[in-house]
Design a protein that fits this description.
- The longest helix is centred in the first third of the chain and has 32 residues, at 85-116.
- The chain has three domains: 2-216 and 405-463, 4-Layer Sandwich (Metallo-beta-lactamase, Chain A); 221-403, Rossmann fold (3-Layer(aba) Sandwich), CATH 3.40.50.10890; 469-504, no CATH class.
- β2 and β3 form a beta hairpin.
- Strands 6-5-4-3-2-1-22 form a seven-stranded mixed β-sheet. It has a seven-stranded mixed β-sheet with strand order 7-8-9-10-11-20-21.
- It is globular and about 70 Å long.
- The chain contains 16 helices and 22 strands.
- It has 504 residues and is of the alpha/beta class.
- Mean pLDDT is 88; it is low at 464-470.
Length: 504
């Protein structure tokens, strides 16, 4: 058994890890690099032969985790993509949309290349290829064990990050012993609208863990939501618009949930909200379809007859013509548009028409990767270049971490502490260098053995003696069955037993 790291190793995007077990090659995610990561690494090629891959186990539908699956298919992958039912439905629209963006951007670049007498370029993949690649997907419910091949079982657990997002448990039976690897995917932020909190896992021998906010804490969500309403009111009083660059899938629905609360409770009467993203429209419908994933609060609202993702004054724009009309609105509009990092899509047009206006507000509600337009804006750029034109940044800029879909440092450590015993190793991925180093230091202070995976690194899980592995699993089972011990006592007891066995 061996794990090789490349995507989201030493960076935030492009999630992709190769697990070799029992003669099979298994990818954990196959995501697209974005922002600076794309510039530095490129998306055109893989560090393995796609024809050799047997399975892709997909944690969730965000493009930095799923976005190169059509390219994998295009280059020869004909295996199976395993994911949750929600992820399958979201990928069905998101990957086709990604292919459309690839085609559109390459068409724009090629018009320039024709004038320059340069050879034409191909998109990474087309919308059609993305649609065909969906035939490789198989969706499963949460909490059900699946055995893709003999001696390898997986189970998807709710990660609370996005509709259908999953923590992946893997049970590997090899050399007469069983090893459990847990891959967190992206862990969700606690208490965010609509979705449940991340599932606590009972135990793991090894954990591959994201660290996006490994050195940062989010603000108080309740306080930020109140501030959000105040930002909208203040902007409207000044005669401006509120522009929200938002990921079409996840953050858009959470923003709609918050606005629904304001409008239903007359905190923002007679407001006009425009969701200017065909993908956001389609994904919102998928959210409505999979209401079984909702948390208790959202379920209660739905059962009372209040659709938490719909309210009077909400408009979903579809055509490019409808989108362009929004740029003529001078005041009193909330425009939610993708992409969330401002790298592509209709949001760039809305920024071009509103970013230079002092009376307007730009509200960021998601992570901004290094090197993206969104990151440049929140870091205080006075001017930015949009469609080849320099635009002054005069609007008021807000960055709301509380609505982030990622767990902060406390959320990450709390989830890890929920394990009944410390893993043999915690492998850190999916974070910039500062976030990973900060989280590594915190883990080591708390007694965890860990390392930060870099591109090209590999890890061979330690060959524990068979007797130790069997005894450890038995002890975990016994201790967890003792009802009169609380979680803290169980963890302490397991740590003492684990250390004692290792000393023998």
């Amino acid at each position: 058994m061996k794990i090789e790291f490349n995507g989201a190793a030493g960076c935030v995007t492009g999630s992709c890890h190769l697990l070799k077990v029992k003669g099979k090659n298994i990818l954990l995610d196959c995501g697209m690099y974005q922002g600076k990561d794309e510039h530095d690494r490129g998306n055109e090629s893989f560090f393995f032969n796609p024809k050799d891959i047997d399975f892709v186990i997909l944690s969730h539908a965000h493009i930095d985790h799923s976005g190169r699956i059509p390219l994998l298919y295009k280059q020869g992958f004909k295996g199976t993509v395993l994911c949750t039912e929600g992820t399958l439905d979201l990928c069905n629209v998101m990957l086709a949309d990604s292919g459309h963006i690839q085609e559109f951007e390459m068409e724009w670049k090629n018009r320039k290349r024709i004038r320059q007498g340069l050879p034409l370029l191909e998109p990474l993949y087309t919308s059609k290829i993305a649609q065909v690649s969906m035939y490789l997907f198989k969706g499963y419910p949460y909490d059900q064990w699946v055995e893709p091949f003999d001696g390898f079982k997986i189970r998807f657990r709710d990660a609370g990050h996005l509709l259908g997002s999953a923590i992946i448990e893997m049970l590997i039976s090899e050399d007469n012993k069983q090893t459990k690897i847990v891959y967190t995917g992206d862990l969700g932020n606690k208490h965010i609208p609509i979705l449940k909190d991340p599932t606590i896992i009972d135990y793991a021998d090894y954990v591959i863990m994201e660290t996006t906010y490994g050195n940062r804490l989010h603000g108080n969500l309740s306080s930020e939501l109140k501030d959000f309403a105040d930002i909208i009111k203040g902007t409207f009083r000044k005669g401006g618009n509120v522009i929200i660059p938002s990921f079409a899938v996840g953050r858009t629905q959470e923003v709609l949930y918050a606005l629904n609360n304001y409008i239903e409770n007359n905190m923002l009467p007679n407001v006009s909200v425009y969701v200017d993203s065909p993908l956001a429209s389609e994904s919102t419908a998928i959210f409505a379809k999979h209401h079984k994933y909702y948390d208790d609060e959202a379920t209660k609202l739905l059962n009372s007859g209040d659709d938490p993702l719909w309210f009077n004054g909400l408009t979903f724009t579809k055509s490019a013509e409808e989108s362009m009309k929004l740029n003529k609105i001078q005041k009193g509009a909330i425009i939610i548009s993708a992409s969330g990092m401002c790298e592509a899509g209709r949001i760039k047009h809305h920024l071009k028409h509103n970013l230079w206006r002092k009376e307007c507000s730009i509200v960021f509600v998601g992570y901004q990767a290094e090197g993206t337009l969104g990151r440049n804006i929140i870091e205080g750029a006075k001017k930015v270049r949009i469609f080849g034109e320099e635009i002054a940044v005069n609007a008021k800029i807000y960055n709301m971490h509380g609505l982030s879909g990622h767990a902060d440092q406390n959320g990450l450590i709390d989830w890890l502490e929920g394990l009944r015993a410390k893993p043999e190793k915690v492998i850190l991925v999916h974070g910039d260098s500062n976030a990973q180093q900060g989280f590594k230091e915190l883990l080591e202070l708390n007694g965890y053995s860990t390392f930060i995976a870099k591109p090209g690194d590999s890890f061979i899980p330690g060959k524990l003696p068979q007797k130790f592995s069997l005894v450890r699993n038995k002890i975990v089972s016994i201790v967890n069955s003792v009802e009169d011990l609380d979680a803290m006592d169980k963890n302490l007891l397991l740590d003492q037993i684990r250390d004692a066995i290792k000393d023998i």
